[in-house]
């Protein structure tokens, strides 16, 4: 059986990203005959250049009328393909308009980000910004696809110079895991198969890398401490599933007093008999039962959705967090965070907002804005307000305790949304920085 | 699952000695093919869970979020495989309780009888309430007019929006998947609709991590798509794994059909061959279930779930390309219908 792997693509205008995505889908046989026919027809109608029968792969991903009419990509598009080993979810992020907003959206859940670089242009400012966002969001893997290698005659020296620049940049930014692959999206070199045109390159093709890199869920999450934000309490009482009622009065009685905390395991593993703490109260109790739907299991790991029954009658509801005993520090009412400003309305000190974290939504006050992060220099400059696509450092005061953790320690437990209290718009995406050296 | 002994392909790591970091050239000298996956940390075995486990966990999480945050959710239920899967996921999400929301069927009046029977049997088995929005009622009293081409799929929008308003539903689950259509590929998992049920593709909320923002004002509602990230093959593989009951027309059977625009349409009260179209008895099955008059069958001998999974995996056509006449209207057919409030 295959495993799931999520990745995002990013690049500057004209880096050939749409072509790369189209090539990946096409060469992995994810584009079916009717889709190809439709794209080929439209390519011909629009007079797409190149040889007869050439296909404008961008048409595959530009799904909205306005995008096709204007020849631009407006929004993140999701694409799906699979190989024998993996099922892939590809978030195709447009690079030119609102690049931060789109990058953040695509990269937030990604196991890897593929950043495109034109080999003739090398590492650009925008490459640096993309990689900085990847680093801030702690995406486990980065692949820099050095594209258009055919246009420099498959010259090893040109590629090596770009690769060295990428390596230096990755070191600068503190990126933990970066790979560089010379590709030609147009010609298909090193996309699916290793190319004979780059005999000086012995590394994997892009697809081989994507098949082999461990996903977040395959990484250490099952070794981390348990976190399960409670979504709701399942207490069927009279409203039992009909198939249980059909099994007779005794079975029905067995479930009459059933009470379990339903949620998705964000990290770690839970076993029957484990000692857990339920926040915000902090009560310690024991796991007595784990259900995955109608199947009772002895243990379950992230990212499964389960229902946990506890030994004691804990007073907890949606918004509570069940954690391995002793693993979670006291919930906080103030936090330091980096926020990615997404809404066109500026975020200013004194703004009253909602903060959505895990399964809790609380009122919050933007206590102060400590500065704006300059992605080019990674320096913080003073800022009175955060504009769309800014990344800023802020202090927030909360109306209730939240079991937040530094994003660096727990991606899922350190992420939150900033929401407009009246119209409900998502104003910003935030990550808890507290306890992390800047 | 991966070979970590060879640094091939890896160029940079902040935490490693400089000699390793400058490895672009070093890799070039490496001869043995192999992948360093950067997994200095321990990884769990790949077999621990599959893509289906991950997709199921995500879908159940979404369904529970919507039930927890909305007052009156409803599930659009056609008896088609995608809505059947969402309903099955809901039974797992709330077990041992019953599914805590009703289902809504937008009835075109152009139904396959075996699908209606399946619908009624399913809601009875699960003990949930069925709401029906009838396109036929709208045609009968003149609120809607039959289209020249006879298809009723585009006519579903008004009865749907009226039923959502009448039921005061603030969240509407659907079985739409992003792999179905280019416009759907851009839609959020929790997708806001305005007072007119309209989707504004250029003004969507960014959706990050697994934090879904479903806040809405009076009159607005959200559409929730728990299986957004599933493909057709995922759906079939999951149905096989969970042995989920389906209407019989998904499996190969003999039927009187005629060919139109490269599709096999069933002979019925609402779909008759035109002059020159030959009726044939063929072994077919349906890949999608919709308006009987414009949903095509495919020639197939796949009579079991495992045979269907094999067939879908090898198919060279998408399910919509193979079976939906209405989506062939134009490149933006789905986008235009969605903007008007369609599923």
UniProtKB/TrEMBL annotation, chain A:
Membrane-crossing residue ranges in chain numbering: none
Domain Tr-type G, chain residue ranges per copy: 2-220
Gene Ontology molecular function terms on file: ATP binding; GTP binding; GTPase activity; sulfate adenylyltransferase (ATP) activity
EC number in record: 2.7.7.4
Pfam families xrefs: GTP-eEF1A_C, GTP_EFTU
Organism of provenance: Agromyces tardus
GO aspect biological process, one term: sulfur compound metabolic process
Entry-linked NCBIfam families: CysN
Superkingdom classification of source: Bacteria
Record key words, sorted: ATP-binding, GTP-binding, Nucleotide-binding, Nucleotidyltransferase, Transferase
CDD domains membership: CysN_ATPS (cd04166), CysN_NoDQ_III (cd04095)
Name the UniProt record assigns to this protein: sulfate adenylyltransferase
From TrEMBL, chain B:
InterPro entries: PAPS_reduct_dom (IPR002500), Rossmann-like_a/b/a_fold (IPR014729), SO4_adenylTrfase_ssu (IPR011784), Sulfate_adenylyltrnsfr_sub2 (IPR050128)
GO biological process terms, semicolon-separated: sulfate assimilation
Compositional bias annotation for Basic and acidic residues: 321-343
Annotated EC: 2.7.7.4
Record-annotated Phosphoadenosine phosphosulphate reductase domain positions: 73-296
Keywords of the record: ATP-binding, Nucleotide-binding, Nucleotidyltransferase, Transferase
Family stated for the protein in its record: Belongs to the PAPS reductase family. CysD subfamily.
Name of the featured protein: Sulfate adenylyltransferase subunit 2
Organism: Agromyces tardus
Gene behind the chain: cysD
């Amino acid at each position: 059986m295959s495993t799931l792997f999520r990745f995002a693509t990013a690049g500057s205008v004209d880096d050939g990203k749409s072509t790369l995505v189209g090539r990946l889908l096409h060469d992995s046989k994810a584009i079916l005959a009717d889709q190809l026919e439709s794209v080929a027809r439209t390519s011909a109608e629009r007079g797409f250049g190149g040889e007869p029968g050439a296909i404008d792969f961008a048409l595959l991903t530009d799904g909205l009328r306005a995008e096709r009419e204007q020849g631009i990509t407006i929004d993140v598009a999701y694409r799906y393909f699979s190989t024998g080993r993996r099922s892939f979810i590809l978030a195709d992020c447009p690079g030119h308009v609102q690049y931060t907003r789109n990058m953040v959206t695509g990269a937030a859940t990604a196991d890897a980000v593929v950043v495109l670089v034109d080999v003739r242009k090398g590492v650009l400012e925008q490459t640096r910004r993309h990689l900085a966002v990847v680093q801030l969001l702690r995406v486990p893997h980065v692949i820099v696809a050095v594209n258009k290698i055919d246009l420099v005659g498959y010259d090893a020296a040109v590629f090596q110079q770009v690769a060295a620049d990428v390596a230096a940049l990755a070191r600068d930014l503190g990126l933990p895991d970066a790979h560089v692959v010379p590709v030609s999206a147009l010609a298909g070199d090193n996309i699916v198969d290793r190319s004979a045109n780059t005999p000086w390159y012995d590394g994997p093709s892009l697809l081989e890398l994507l098949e082999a890199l461990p996903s977040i869920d395959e990484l250490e999450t099952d070794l981390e401490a348990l976190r399960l934000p409670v979504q709701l309490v399942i207490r069927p009482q009279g409203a039992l599933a009909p198939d249980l009622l059909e099994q007779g009065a005794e079975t029905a009685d067995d479930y009459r007093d059933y009470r379990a905390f339903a949620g998705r395991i964000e990290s770690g593993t839970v076993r029957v008999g484990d000692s857990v703490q339920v926040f915000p109260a902090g009560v310690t109790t024991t796991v007595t039962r784990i259900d995955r739907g109608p199947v009772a299991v002895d243990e379950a790991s992230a990212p499964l959705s389960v229902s946990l029954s506890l030994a004691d009658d804990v007073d907890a509801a949606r918004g509570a967090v069940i954690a391995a005993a002793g693993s979670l520090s006291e919930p906080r009412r103030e936090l330091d965070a980096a926020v990615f400003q997404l809404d066109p309305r500026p975020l200013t000190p004194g703004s009253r907002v909602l903060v959505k974290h895990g399964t809790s939504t609380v009122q919050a006050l933007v206590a102060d804005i400590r500065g704006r992060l300059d992605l080019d220099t990674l320096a913080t400059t003073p800022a009175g307000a955060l504009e769309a696509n800014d990344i800023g450092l802020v202090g927030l005061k909360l109306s209730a305790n939240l079991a937040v953790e530094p994003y660096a320690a727990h991606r899922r437990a350190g992420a939150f949304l900033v929401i407009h209290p009246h119209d409900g718009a998502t104003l910003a995406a935030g990550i808890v920085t507290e306890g992390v050296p800047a | 699952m991966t070979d970590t002994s060879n640094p091939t392909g890896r160029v940079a790591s902040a935490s490693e000695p400089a000699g390793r970091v400058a490895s672009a050239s070093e890799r070039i000298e490496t001869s043995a093919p192999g992948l360093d996956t950067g997994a200095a940390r321990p990884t769990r075995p790949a077999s621990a869970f599959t893509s289906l486990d991950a997709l199921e966990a995500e879908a159940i999480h979404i369904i529970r979020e919507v039930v927890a945050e909305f007052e009156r959710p409803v599930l659009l239920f056609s008896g088609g495989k995608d809505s059947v899967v969402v309903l099955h996921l809901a039974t797992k999400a709330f077990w041992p309780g019953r599914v805590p929301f009703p289902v809504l069927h937008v009835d075109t009046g152009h139904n396959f009888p075996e699908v209606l029977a399946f619908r009624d049997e399913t809601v009875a088995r699960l003990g949930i309430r069925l709401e029906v929005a009838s396109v036929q009622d709208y045609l009968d009293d003149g609120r809607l007019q039959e289209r020249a081409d006879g298809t009723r799929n585009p006519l579903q929008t008004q009865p749907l929006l009226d039923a959502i308003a009448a039921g005061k539903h603030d969240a509407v689950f659907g079985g739409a998947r992003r792999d179905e259509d280019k416009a759907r590929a851009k839609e959020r998992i929790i997708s806001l609709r305005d007072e007119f049920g309209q989707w504004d593709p250029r003004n969507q909320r960014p959706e990050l991590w697994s934090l879904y923002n479903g806040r809405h004002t009076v009159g607005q509602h959200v559409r929730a798509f728990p299986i957004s990230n599933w493909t057709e093959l995922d759906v079939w593989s999951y149905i096989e794994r969970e042995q989920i009951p389906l209407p019989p027309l998904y499996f190969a059977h003999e039927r009187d059909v005629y060919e139109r625009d490269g599709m096999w349409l069933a002979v019925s009260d609402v779909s008759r061959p035109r002059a020159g179209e030959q009726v044939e008895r063929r072994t077919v099955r349906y890949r999608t279930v919709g308006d009987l008059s414009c949903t095509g069958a495919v020639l197939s001998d796949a009579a079991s779930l495992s045979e269907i999974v094999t067939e879908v995996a090898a198919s060279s056509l998408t399910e919509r390309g193979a079976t939906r006449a209405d989506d062939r209207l134009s490149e933006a057919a789905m986008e235009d219908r969605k903007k008007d409030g369609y599923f």
